[in-house]
Fold each of these.
Amino acid sequence: MVFTAKACMHHLKHYTERWKNLLESTAMKSCQTILQLAVLFLISVSVAIFTSAPISAEPLSEQEIEDWFNDDSEQDVDDVNEGRLEFISPVTDKDILSTEGLITITDDSLKTGMVSLQQCYRNLDAVAEMDVMYSYKNMKRLQVVSSGNIADARVVGNSIQLQGVAGSAFVCITAEAQLLESTADGSYRLSYGPYYRRFLDGYYPYRVTMTIAYPQNRLGFAVITPSSRPLFELQKQPGKLFMDTWFEGVLQVDITFSAIDAEAVE
């Protein structure tokens, strides 16, 4: 799904309904025009702020704005996800923002915590500018390896700055990041996320596909959080895990591996 500014209007309607009632008279028509411009300004500011969760900024025509202000249909703002993680069925009739990733754990990762990360963001929404920010405590060699429908994509510190993002755009990166840590009981925990797509006070559908490769002579899968359930299932193969999930809200994934004595295995 391409999440447009038009799809967010029920949020703004919730906040401006009382104002609208005051603007119905002909004498207040000019004030209504000012309020419409204010709504558009609020949308544009929101686009600039929530760059860590890409959103679309397709402009509304004057007629669409007028129709929205004159629409008396009720839209329940209680239906909007406010951050609670909820796994959903695959969305097949719309383009949905998605992340495809590969995390590779090596023998050296067990010492340093650094893993290899390959990641692609697809179906990005059309915006003039967008930043993909990373908050990992240690990140190295961040590179843009490919992109499409984007005028310019460049690395700035621990972020990717995108300009001229057209509809259905994508960008793929590689990096090394410290995602693995040893625990007091001798096991290892891999943490990645959070993943979310946010606009104003709502969270919207997102798809994450992730493959985790690990040395099976050194690590054994133990547990994943969130736990496996319908619509969130982990596929397990020797030395490899695979996850493909659709959700709303905020997804943080933690995987615990048990340590295996390599000499004992040999």
Note: The two ends are 50 Å apart (CA to CA).
Amino acid sequence: MINQMDKKKILYFCIIFLLFFHLVPAVQSPEDSQGGEEKKKSSFFKNLFEDEWQILTSPFRIKGKSLLTWGSAALITAVLIHNDEEMYRGAKNYQEKNEWVSDLSPKLRPLGNGTINLGVAGCFYICGVIFKDKKARKTAELSLMSLVHAGVVVQLLKHLTGRKRPEAAPVGEDHWEGPAGFFKRYKDHRDMYYDAFPSGHTITAWSIATVIAKMYNKSVVVPALCYSLATMAGLSNVTEDKHWFSDVFAGAALGYAIGNFVVKTRWRNISILPFAQHGKVGLSLNYSFN
């Protein structure tokens, strides 16, 4: 008999195989001249590794506006870390007084699950194939890229910081083990105890939400829905005792940055529109990065 965990692993493998098998040739296909146009690149994997290198080395190239943005994010994270224990207790007190939080929280947290988000990417690809929608297929590809990047970044930071989760004993007390937590998590067979910072579910939810929101940004509803669901998925990690507020904020900031980077780097939007002005007619070419 195949247990529930095995079924999830099989589903996880099938989704990855489907996306990787079909997306590689999709990148090499001719560009569509109507609506959206993809940047020409030789290989999906080549793009993936190039972008991963850019992401991992980006801290050494921060300057100007980016320095101000990430400096502000770091300051907010530091303030949250300082107040995490108090904020966590406040959130738990509110949860105890409001049963709807406990009822809704476990239903929202899976929105940051990697397998579910791979499934979302797979749905975009399948719909793109069925309806011959190149933008949907590209959304699937960029979503997959963002999920891979998010996974690498979050695991690197988790192993470097070694922060205990709120549920780890003593419950509700914040402890940082640093890189030493890398060995403790495997030695003590408590691999989930030393990987709080940043939140993996949050960075996953925000990375794919940003890709979808940026790809379909002409609609107000799509970005609003994507970011709302990602936010609720992130906050549910606190009420489910998996993460501190600073873990969630850092995960959201990193997830947004990764998704935004992938879309800006691998997708451009071109539109050709007719115009008539002062007795003249012609075509206007509009080009913009999402």
Note: Confidence is low (pLDDT under 50) at residues 20-41, 285-290.
Amino acid sequence: MVGKQLLFCIVSFVASTHFVLAQSDTLVPLADSVVVEIKNDTRFDDGRQLYKNDLSFLASAHTSGWGVQVRKGYNLDLFNKLYWSVGFSTIKHSKEVKISPFEGDAKGYVFGKKNTLSVLRGTFGYQKMLFEREEYKGVEVGFNLSGGFSLGLVKPVYLELQEPFVNGSSQGISIQAYDENKHSQIQIRGRAPFVYGINQIEFYPGLHLKAAVNIQYSAVDKSIRAVETGIVLDGFYKKVPIMAFSNNQQLFLNLFVSWQFGKKYTK
């Protein structure tokens, strides 16, 4: 009985093997055609593989200044990403009005401006893909939410001041930090070089929150080309004294748009 079962198994194996070999002339060309079709699919240069991380640079314009940022992203899966970034941004007071001086070589200034405010940001964020790109030259839409530490750099504004006339002649030009109690507009010739006051910078620690929509449009999947737009809120531990004759703020809310360029990596 056992011998008959063994013989039946051997015969069945040989028959099935013969059938597969007989069909190989049909199956192999079919498999080859599938591989060729995949290789010839040029919608995405790498078959939309999942990249592990990316590195990008962002240049931004917002409602009270400009900024730059370096961002490092880590993909959790195709739809979710964590990232950190380091950035720099300028922030102006809403009441600033630039005045152009009469003398050609003098620099424009803002009357009443006591200090400039720049911000260093360290950010941690999360990005969620909302709409995946499906076609060649399509777009990918994501939403990101981030926040972190802000460090305000508050630098005194220095101006070139015309010294009083004595016996019909000017006594020259002096460079001084603007003081609303001492300097009238008629004395101001223009803004002094930026380096003045760097050694007097004061630090204002704070926090920031940001929400944005990210639209990627790169035709090459491993490259990052995107526009990001949203809202950012910076808050400092006390009011920042930017202007002399206007109410100063502790919170700064801005709309922004950023242009993002970078590359994705598999390692």
Note: The two ends are 60 Å apart (CA to CA).
